[in-house]
């Protein structure tokens, strides 16, 4: 049943993103930013962690989880270090994911040629 809920929740998040693209006629960058902000807001209200507990990968894989991670890191470090912790916490929690994206993007650019 865990797989079903993960599929449904992850699919619902993707449907919301697709509706943003189709109905609002926004660019993919706008849709991406909106979904990150939604994840951050849900974390701020304490709603994203229960969603992760319920849906597992259905809530951690979509881009909304990135907003959740940013907010969670900022809040944890703000409690420890005050205002400077807000900035450092965001980078500390998300640095491995961002670094991986940069490294694998570079590897892809080295080994593959664009068609255009």
TrEMBL record:
Domain of life: Bacteria
Keyword Metal-binding: no
One matching Pfam family: SpoVAC_SpoVAEB
InterPro entries, per the entry: Spore_V_AE (IPR014204), SpoVA (IPR005562)
Keywords: Membrane, Transmembrane, Transmembrane helix
TM ranges: 6-24, 31-48, 93-112
Keyword Transmembrane: yes
Record's protein name: Stage V sporulation protein AE
Organism: Gracilibacillus oryzae
Biological classification of the source: Bacteria, Bacillati, Bacillota, Bacilli, Bacillales
Primary gene name: spoVAE
